[in-house]
Write a structure and sequence with these properties.
Elements (H helix, E strand, L loop, with lengths): L3 H11 L5 E4 L4 E5 L12 E6 L2 E5 L3 H6 L11 H14 L2 E3 L2 E5 L5 H16 L6 H19 L5 E5 L12 E5 L6 E6 L2 H16 L5 E6 L7 H8 L4 E3 L6 H13 L10
Parallel strand pairs: 9-10, 10-11
Antiparallel strand pairs: 1-2, 2-3, 3-4, 4-6, 5-6, 7-8, 8-9
Helix pairs in contact: 1-4, 3-4, 5-8, 6-7
Length: 268
């Protein structure tokens, strides 16, 4: 048994004075702190005695809260996964199938809570990624999605036509080959990228290069209407958001790959 008042005092001394500990049954306490997510919700922290040891747990609340705004699958890859993995390692926090846990060594309750709060706040900051950082995550997720659904011998990332465009002025984020008209897939996180994709597509048309243009937006609603209208003139298929259309994009790519033109080598 521990003295809850002593634990609370240790918490206050090591973390902050504005917190309290309330009993929720035998050997279980709720720890109320002033620390919050960006939407105002407080961090969820419980102190429990399990298998002879005291530990702190968020009972799965932190990851659940992040998935309000971020697809849960995106927490498991790319930049977000790296941030989470590095944070857990730095603060000694364990991920037990989505529940974050920190065993308390000895009677160092205050030190453990300080580390736990710091770790939870750093993970919660994933929702504060700058637009530039979010854009890099979008590109990572774009490449990862195509990697999952298109075999390596059927795709070329950052492709340009070596004959008609040796300087690479008209790049394509991914070319999927092996069909009569290859797919030119453009990743579109911004107005500038949409303009570039439009110019590239018009260039291919002028050069009479066969292709089908596909646009995958980070968020189509953010794109200027005139910029979007010009791109729509040269684009066969558009997905308004990668994150809300992953299954549809995956199915589209699978159908495209399965429609291989038997007259053409797969590595064309």
């Amino acid at each position: 048994m521990v003295d809850a008042r002593e634990v609370e005092q240790d918490f206050k001394a090591k973390v902050c004075d504005k917190l309290r500990v309330e009993s929720e049954g035998v050997n279980r306490y709720r720890v109320f702190t002033p620390f919050r997510f960006d939407d105002g919700d407080h961090l969820a922290i419980a102190l429990k005695h399990v298998s002879g040891n005291w530990l702190l747990t968020d009972e799965g609340h932190t990851f659940m809260h992040l998935t309000y705004d971020i697809d849960g699958r995106d927490l498991l890859r790319g930049t977000r996964q790296k941030i989470i993995t590095n944070t857990l390692s730095a603060f000694g926090i364990q991920d037990n199938d989505g529940e974050l846990i920190l065993p308390i060594p000895g009677e160092r309750f205050g030190d453990a809570l300080y580390s736990f709060v710091q770790g939870l706040l750093k993970i919660a900051d994933l929702s504060f990624l700058t637009r530039e950082r979010a854009r890099s995550t979008f590109m990572e997720d774009f490449y990862a999605l195509i990697d999952r659904h298109v075999p390596e011998n059927r795709r070329k990332f950052n492709w340009h036509d070596a004959i008609a465009d040796p300087a690479g002025k008209y790049p394509v984020d991914c070319r999927v080959n092996g069909m009569p008209e290859p797919l030119f897939i453009f990743a579109l996180p911004s107005d500038d990228r949409v303009r570039d994709a439009t110019i590239s597509a018009f260039h291919f048309e002028a050069q009479r290069i066969p292709f089908r243009a596909i646009g995958v937006f980070e968020n189509q609603e953010d794109i200027n209407r005139k910029v979007l209208a010009r791109f729509s003139d040269v684009c066969e298929k558009q997905f308004s958001s990668l994150f809300s259309n992953e299954d549809r994009i995956g199915e589209y790519l699978r159908r495209a790959v399965n429609s291989i033109d038997e007259r053409s080598p797969a590595g064309e």
